[in-house]
């Protein structure tokens, strides 16, 4: 059975991280990722003629496994595996597997490397079988590990990885997906790091394109080459060296130019000009626009991008916000770039997205092709769209989609989010491009109304601000509020029934019913698409189409944000549906059960043994509860009734014990209340007439305990029978039954519930706002003054009674 994506990722990370010891993550990643690479290329290409990757004889993963436990394992891996593999495929700067400083000495190194190899020996990690065309599970696993290593590496060493979410935005806004492409289409990243950004742009193209990248750090450039291979781009060209001082891609003495260029250069590089004379730059990068400041290298990289683009080229670069407003030399460069028309757009991103820094950044979108006709710059302030993810912030799927949609459509419908800023306005602001000058994205202040506080009443302006609700339910406003005086209203219902008034109002109920029917329309459209999935389909491509269909289905619907609905589906995809999809693409509509074996290690050293415990069975595609609900509802009902009866019996027994456990209670002398102790006490009492009440309680306890025991036994029998019946049902399931169970019982109800939850949030938001306004203006100042006077008089009276005076 195919391994689930989520299990592959988490097991790799957890296993590898456990073996890391005291080594820094930025160092340990090299060993883990190289091992992952060797395992993958061995599974994929070993023994193949004309493969894009050469696996020398004796240098496969199987040969590495044979070295486990050998005292010279590190040296042997270097000589027999890593060295020949690197030489055959022009891979440089591979990690030293015999480095005692990182891996330990003697037995410590042997154990660490042996255990690390064992992580990748898992039979489920047969990457030749766990990969469908167009959906590279291994490439994604590589990216998953890279992200975790970047998180663990800290600010100074996490810059080798650009978050995938940001990479996807850059790939979209340069328009490569909408452009005709082929192998003659070139994409370049001058500061490519591990290559994740470059790959995302390549993935966004309609057809295969040619990728070029350069990375200064030698070890990281090696990771980039491996990343290209793992993502099925073995012909990508990755150069190693300083892009500004020693660009590797040239046409004669000039820079090579490309169709698309993207980059996430080091922010504010203070050593950018080391080894370079900017005033005499051999590649003419600074002649037209000026030389960047010696201690601020941001524009050096941006101008390198501009110079590396063809006359029809398009690019995007991630830079700190300072490039938008800093003065002096940068101000002049900015002015000239704007006047040349090269800047198509600016996208402001949330702070703390990147691993190398916590400062906010922006994306500068460059378009040379349409520079002459450019009349303005399209600006987006997306700084508030993110979710907290550990110590970092992360863009959600809805944030990415909104940015790309708005930028692609040049959508100005929400001026607090995006607008086209004309060149005249920019010139008026002296070419300062700081986004707050052009987009006010601040949250509107909730203003307190003085007259409302003095005289009472809810300001009508606050009620009218909820106009989206009244547009859908105009009579609901009249049901909630009544006129008080000019410009003010009062609550027409008690505060405690605000929510019920909203939910029970005919117009709101009609709205909810209509939205339910609206989802039903999409559901009816989705069912045949979902049931048509079969082995070999592309899960990534499919979820894009399905989620976009849902997004468009809710666009323009009142009160709900279509992007919020879209996010619910994407969350469910990440939590459950993605794993199901990869099971389907590998195995088809097959509901396979398997035993759940829990392994625990007992003992230490040579005497340690792995103990296995059978924890029952499971089925990932069709979990047991769906089989039970559809085929064994009556049995489940009987089980639930027995469980409820058992709970009631146990509660009654507990109440009896608590009632008679006081100082003089029947159970006060018991060390432990159980059947043996109660039986002994009854025997001790015998026929003592004076103990009749105690005897009655004890026999009542015995009866209750017997009833509880019988119910426990009955429940266990029902559970065993139901478990056996459900387990026996799986082999009898037809393909159509499996499809119905997965699509109609599992997926769509979960999606429906999330959409219903979004509608619940809509109603809760209205109810909460109405209640807040009611409480805010509930008591006017005169009423409060009178209440204070009454309370003061009462306190003064009490003080007089006590013989004290109120001063």
UniProtKB/TrEMBL annotation:
Record key words, sorted: Methyltransferase, Restriction system, S-adenosyl-L-methionine, Transferase
SUPFAM superfamilies on file: S-adenosyl-L-methionine-dependent methyltransferases
Domain N6 adenine-specific DNA methyltransferase N-terminal, residue spans: 10-49
Catalyzed chemical reaction(s): a 2'-deoxyadenosine in DNA + S-adenosyl-L-methionine = an N(6)-methyl-2'-deoxyadenosine in DNA + S-adenosyl-L-homocysteine + H(+)
GO biological process assignments: methylation
Gene Ontology MF term list: methyltransferase activity
EC number, UniProt record: 2.1.1.72
Family label: Belongs to the N(4)/N(6)-methyltransferase family.
Protein name per Swiss-Prot or TrEMBL: site-specific DNA-methyltransferase (adenine-specific)
């Amino acid at each position: 059975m195919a391994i689930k994506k989520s299990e592959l990722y988490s097991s790799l990370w957890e296993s590898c991280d456990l073996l890391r010891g005291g080594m820094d993550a930025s160092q340990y990643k090299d060993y883990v990722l190289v091992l992952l690479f060797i395992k993958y290329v061995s599974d994929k290409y070993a023994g193949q003629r004309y493969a894009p990757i050469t696996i020398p004889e004796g240098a496969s993963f199987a040969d590495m496994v044979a070295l486990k436990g050998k005292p010279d394992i590190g040296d042997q891996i270097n000589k027999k595996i890593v060295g020949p593999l690197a030489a055959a495929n022009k891979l440089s700067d591979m990690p030293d597997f015999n480095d005692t400083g990182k891996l330990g000495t003697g037995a410590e190194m042997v154990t660490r490397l042996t255990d690390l190899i064992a992580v990748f020996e898992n039979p489920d990690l047969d990457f030749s079988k766990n990969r469908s065309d167009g959906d590279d599970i291994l490439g994604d696993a590589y990216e998953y590990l890279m992200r975790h290593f970047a998180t663990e590496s800290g600010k100074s060493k996490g810059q080798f990885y650009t978050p995938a979410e940001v990479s996807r935005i850059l790939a979209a806004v340069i328009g490569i997906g909408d452009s005709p492409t082929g192998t003659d289409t070139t994409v370049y990243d001058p500061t490519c790091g591990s290559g994740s950004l470059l790959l995302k742009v390549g993935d966004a193209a309609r057809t295969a394109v040619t990728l070029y990248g350069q990375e200064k750090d030698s070890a990281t450039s090696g990771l980039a080459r491996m990343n290209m291979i793992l993502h099925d781009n073995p012909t990508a060209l990755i150069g190693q060296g300083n892009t500004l001082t020693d660009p590797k891609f040239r046409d004669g003495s000039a820079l090579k130019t490309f169709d698309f260029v993207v980059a996430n250069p080091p922010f504010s590089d203070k050593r950018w000009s080391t080894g370079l004379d900017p005033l005499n730059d051999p590649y003419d990068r600074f002649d037209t626009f000026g030389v960047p400041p010696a201690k601020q290298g941001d524009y050096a990289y941006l101008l390198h991008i501009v110079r590396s683009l063809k006359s029809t080229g398009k690019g995007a670069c991630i830079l700190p916000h300072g490039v938008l407003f800093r003065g002096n030399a940068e101000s002049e460069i900015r002015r000239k770039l704007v006047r040349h028309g090269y800047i198509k757009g600016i996208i402001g991103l949330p702070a703390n997205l990147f691993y190398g820094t916590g400062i906010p950044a922006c994306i500068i979108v460059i378009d040379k092709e349409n520079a002459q006709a450019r009349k303005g710059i399209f600006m987006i302030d997306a700084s508030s769209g993110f979710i907290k993810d550990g110590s970092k912030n992360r863009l959600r799927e809805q944030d990415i989609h909104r940015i790309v949609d708005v930028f692609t459509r040049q959508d100005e419908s929400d001026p607090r989010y995006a607008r086209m800023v004309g060149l005249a306005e920019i010139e008026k602001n002296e070419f300062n491009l700081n986004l707050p000058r052009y987009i006010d994205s601040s949250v509107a202040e909730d203003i307190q109304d003085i007259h409302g506080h003095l005289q009472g009443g809810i300001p009508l302006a606050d009620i009218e601000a909820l106009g989206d609700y009244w547009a859908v339910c105009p009579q609901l406003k009249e049901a909630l509020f009544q006129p008080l005086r000019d410009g003010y209203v009062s609550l027409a219902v008690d505060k405690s029934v605000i929510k019920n008034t909203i939910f029970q109002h005919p117009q709101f109920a009609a709205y909810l019913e209509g939205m339910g029917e609206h989802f039903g329309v999409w559901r009816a459209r989705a069912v045949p698409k979902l049931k048509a999935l079969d082995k070999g389909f592309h899960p990534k491509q499919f979820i894009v189409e399905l989620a976009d269909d849902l997004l468009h289905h809710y666009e323009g619907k009142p009160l709900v944000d279509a992007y919020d609905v879209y996010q619910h589906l994407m969350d469910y995809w990440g939590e459950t549906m993605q794993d199901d999809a990869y099971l389907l693409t590998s195995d088809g509509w097959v509901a396979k059960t398997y035993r759940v074996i829990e392994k625990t290690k007992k003992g230490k050293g040579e005497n340690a043994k792995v103990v296995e415990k059978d924890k029952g069975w499971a089925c990932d595609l069709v979990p047991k509860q769906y089989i039970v609900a559809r085929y064994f509802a009556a049995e489940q009902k009987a089980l639930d009734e027995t469980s409820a009866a058992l709970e009631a019996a146990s509660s009654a027994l507990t109440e009896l014990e608590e009632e008679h456990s006081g100082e003089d209670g029947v159970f006060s002398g018991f060390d432990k209340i159980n059947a043996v102790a109660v039986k002994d006490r009854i025997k001790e009492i015998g026929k003592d007439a004076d103990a009749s009440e105690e005897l009655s309680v004890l026999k009542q306890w015995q009866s209750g305990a017997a009833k509880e025991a019988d119910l426990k036994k009955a429940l266990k029998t029902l559970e065993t029978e139901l478990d056996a019946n459900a387990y026996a049902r799986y082999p009898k399931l037809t393909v159509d039954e499996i499809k119905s169970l997965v699509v109609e019982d599992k997926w769509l109800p979960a999606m429906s519930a999330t959409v219903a939850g979004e509608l619940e949030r809509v109603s809760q938001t209205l109810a909460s706002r109405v209640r807040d306004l009611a409480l805010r203006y509930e008591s006017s100042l005169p009423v409060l003054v009178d209440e204070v006077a009454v309370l003061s008089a009462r306190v003064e009276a009490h003080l007089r009674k006590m013989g004290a005076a109120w001063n």
